[in-house]
Design brief:
Strand content: under 5%
Radius of gyration: 19 Å
Number of domains: 1
Helix content: over 70%
Order of helices and strands: HHHHHHHHHH
Number of strands: 0
Number of helices: 10
Low-confidence stretches: none
Shape: elongated
Amino acid sequence: MPKNRLEAFTDGVIAIIITVMVLELTPPDGGSFSALWSLRYTFVIYLVSFLTLAVYWNNHHHLFQIVKSINGRVLWSNILFLLVISMFPFVTAWVGEHHIDSYAPEMTYGAVVLVTNIMFYFLIRSLIKASGTNSEINKLLGRGYNKPFISIAGNIVAVFFALVWPPLTIIIDSLLLLLWVIPERRIELHVARRNKEVPK
């Protein structure tokens, strides 16, 4: 089946999630810069969540550049991926409200990041299975592709570091995000080569 509707649906859901996060931002109680400064942690976690969603969207877009068709398994894998990232507005607001006084918000935030990465990995595996062993995606992201495992392992560590100092969870997950800021270079190079081979 064609992939266009899945991509359009994913784009729309992520856009809505980001919009909901923006709407969760409330103005300061007073009209001074000191009142605005009191919301600094709320803005920091909003920025972290916004960048996290942007990185997921960017990698999702690159992933589907090397996919020609999908099946029902891929559709459900993508739905589960979207289900988890739809929790970002909730956990972002919770961390913004209770950034230091309790470990539960940061631990929950870390768990959402962890499960999102697991769902993204399952999406990759579903696409490989749907495309076949000789497909572009299997050759590029099949055996030997370890970046998801590094991220997932780091996310697990980050969740439990909330018990040591809650902000450490956010810090570790943000550092792990650097692995994905630049989407898979092998995909970009492959798509560039493929486009050159297509006659104008």
